[in-house]
Amino acid sequence: MFAALLDTCVLWPSLQRDFLLSLAVEGLYRPVWSSAILAELEYEEAAKWVRRGADKHEAACRASRLISRMRMAFDDAEVSGWEALDGTYGLPTQMTSMLWRLRSGRYGRQLSSSAVLELLESRYAMVQAVGLLRQAE
Fold first, then answer.
1. Which of 13, 81, 102, 119 is most exposed, with the fewest beta carbons within 10 Å of its own?
2. Which residues pair with 33 in a beta bridge?
């Protein structure tokens, strides 16, 4: 069985999370995540419940309950010792910053897909990758 890191971007949409964790329950793969991923997931879940009209305390309780259930159901999924691997992985600071904005949308201006492709092509010379992405559109 292989292990797959499930980042917040795949755990946060509820339906997607339920589907992926159902596959894990069936033994198709072993999910892994970090405490930082779960903390971000808890934050996003609480924010979702507040947007839907729950008070902050109720939203925090619901989000906390989700994380507790995930930890109980997959007691071997949370990895430790990852902190030394956190960082830019050699990417230029501008690229790291751009990738963070694209992933979260919470910081800086949101970019359209064509703007992202233009940046990748002009700033990072990713001409072939951009060409493939434009063909797929």
1. 81
2. 78
Distance between CA atoms of 67 and 62, rounded to whole angstroms? 9
Shared-domain flag, residues 81 and 109: no
Q: What is the pTM of this model?
A: 0.63
Which runs of consecutive H residues, i.e. helices, occur in the chain?
A: 8-11, 14-25, 35-51, 56-73, 93-104, 113-124, 127-136
- When divided into structural domains, the chain yields a total of 2
User: Hey, what are 91's tokens?
Assistant: 């990417």
For residues 7 and 73, state if they share a domain. yes
The model's pLDDT over 44-93, given as tens digits with 9 standing for 90+, comes to: 999 999 999 999 999 999 999 999 999 999 999 999 887 666 654 554 45
Contact by Cβ (8 Å): 20, 6: yes
Count CB neighbours of 124 within 10 A: 15
Same domain, 28 and 56: yes
Range of the domain at 104: 93-136
